[in-house]
Design goal:
With 253 residues, this protein is α+β, with helices and mostly antiparallel strands. The protein has nine helices and seven strands.
Length: 253
């Protein structure tokens, strides 16, 4: 497991007020090389990202820490999506993690221990958390366009690993990945109002108005109790990360 001991590296590379990682400014030569590569390479996986969604996430091990997240979504199949998660939609946004989203059909087939790592996109009182509350939005895309996708997302489960805790000032991805969970309060009571307001101001939207427009969305008929382990136990699932050496060892005959 990667160490989180900050004493082993210069403080200037780990935290502080500067949001960008340490390193020299990009040279003109490097810019030219990158531009040339873009012209010659297909970058097919990146080009398959079909939508940008903005929502919020909470650290399962410390629920006082809430962050705005920007998901760049690739649909692999009707039942499986993969998302590169950034801390902003700016050109220099930091890649802070990855989320996988599966349909209820796939989730039900997972082993119970695996299901504990996933969060539902619905709430136990049958009101969708991110979707019906208006927390999940597709910036600058009309609601009518994304409505079918939003209705499908209400019956899905996500597994979100945060690999870069930029919200605490880390200028590099440090330590083990953190398991994230979905805000689950339709009245927005679980998400800090200032986070929602800042997002609303940036995109000139009203989350409360979006919530009202989604009130008629159909609700999932069944939520697997194995999901949202954090909600049932008041803490994140205990993650046992083996040292790299152990993972590389293979038994000999």
């Amino acid at each position: 497991m990667a160490s989180s001991d900050k004493s082993s590296a210069p403080a200037s590379t780990l935290g502080g007020d500067q949001p960008i990682p340490p390193g020299k400014t990009m040279s003109m030569e490097r810019h030219m090389l990158d531009k040339g590569a873009q012209m010659l390479q297909s970058l097919k996986p990146v080009k398959e990202m079909s939508q940008h969604a903005c929502t919020f996430a909470i650290y399962s091990h410390d629920m006082s820490r809430q962050i705005e997240t920007h998901h760049y979504v690739t649909r692999i199949s009707q039942d499986f999506l993969q998302c590169a998660v950034y801390d902003s939609d700016d050109s220099h946004g930091r890649l802070i993690g990855v989320e996988y989203i599966v349909s209820d059909v796939i989730f039900e087939a997972l082993p119970p221990e695996e299901q504990k790592l996933w969060h539902s996109h619905a709430y136990e009182n049958r009101l969708w958390a991110q979707i019906k509350s208006g927390l999940w939005v597709n910036p600058r895309v009309p609601e009518a366009v994304v409505k079918p996708e939003l209705e499908n997302l209400g019956k899905t489960y996500g597994k979100f690993w945060c690999t870069w805790q930029a919200d605490r000032g880390d200028r590099l991805p440090l330590g083990a990945p953190a398991l994230m969970v979905s805000p689950q309060a339709v009245n927005l009571g679980m998400v800090k109002p200032e986070l929602v307001q800042r997002r609303d101001d940036k995109y000139s939207i009203s989350t409360s108005a979006i919530q009202k427009s989604r009130v008629e969305f159909a609700e999932p008929e069944w939520l697997n109790p194995q999901a949202d382990y954090w909600k049932q136990h008041g803490k994140g699932f205990a993650i046992d990360i083996e040292p790299t050496e152990m993972k590389l060892r293979a038994p000999f005959p």
